[in-house]
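This is your field. Have a critical look at both lines of this record:
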Amino acid sequence: MLEWLLRQDLRLFFHINNQWQQPWLDAVMPWIREPYLWAPLYLFLGLFVTINYGWRGFFWIVLFIVSFGIADQSSSFLKDTFNRVRPCRDPLLQQFVRVLVNYCPMSGSFTSNHAANHFALGTFCFLTLKTAFQQYAWLFYVWAFAIAYAQVYVGVHYPLDVAGGAVLGTLIGLLSGSFFQRRIRLEAELTT
């Protein structure tokens, strides 16, 4: 069963990395996975919660950062445990992998930190901001999925790596978001 799953994972990787390529995606995908690209979103969210929710917004920012940290460290632990070779580092695959970034990390491949971190943040934001963003709250998952997909597209992760990271991150986001909703919850500050 595991061997079949890994074969399907490799097959899907080559579809995403080689067959489903587009010149415009080749230009966009390396940027999608860069944290600096998303700095304006983080700044907007931080300002949004502090301006609209006062001291509760401060605790929201703290739990946002804690969610990221827990996801990042948990994923790094799993990478060290499984020690799966990245597609861009695998000597049997290197010549077939399109690597669209300047650097292929030396760390293990399973699970993807990018996926874990962004699904943790996306889930946390979805749970805590769905009242404020209403029907647009699902865009947090689109954001996380785009970053995870980009990791496969540029050749640094397999689909199972990002799927594992997505599951890990979603669980962490559920825990932190549920805790925040039970204990603090974003409610507008009353001004008199």
Notes: The mean pLDDT is 94. Helices lie at 2-19, 23-32, 39-53, 55-82, 113-133, 139-153, 159-183.
